[in-house]
Amino acid sequence: GRHPLNPSKGAEGAGKSFPVPPEKLVESDPDIIVVCPCGLDIPATRREAATLQRAPWWPSLRAVREGRVALVDGDAMFNRPGPRLVDAMEWLPSGVMGGR
User: For residue 97, how far is the Cα from the chain centroid?
Assistant: First the structure.
């Protein structure tokens, strides 16, 4: 599928990471949110996620209302190329979507 915030550049894959303004996130109203900041372990990710949870727009997101938000050690699962990416992709259906 097409990612609304970081569309594919064909064979090059998605573009480089960049800050997403809250307005764009609210506009896209994601079904699933995976919070996996680069360089942060789970305790640090929890602290950063608390900032998101205090934002007035956070509860309006479909993923939040439906309980489909996951906090992940990004370096361990998503942010580095290698075999762990396969593990991360296998984890997604059960870890975020409840086995759907």
Answer: 13
* Positive or negative: CA dihedral 24, 29, 31, 37: positive
Contact 5, 28 (CB under 8 A): yes
Answering whether pTM is above 0.90, one says no
AA identity, residue 29: D
DSSP 8-state class, residue 98: T
| Paired tokens of 52 | 């998101």
Cα distances from 67 to residues 29, 34, 81, 98, in angstroms, run 13, 11, 28, 10
Q: Dump pLDDT digits (tens) for 38-70.
A: 788 889 989 989 999 999 999 999 999 998 898
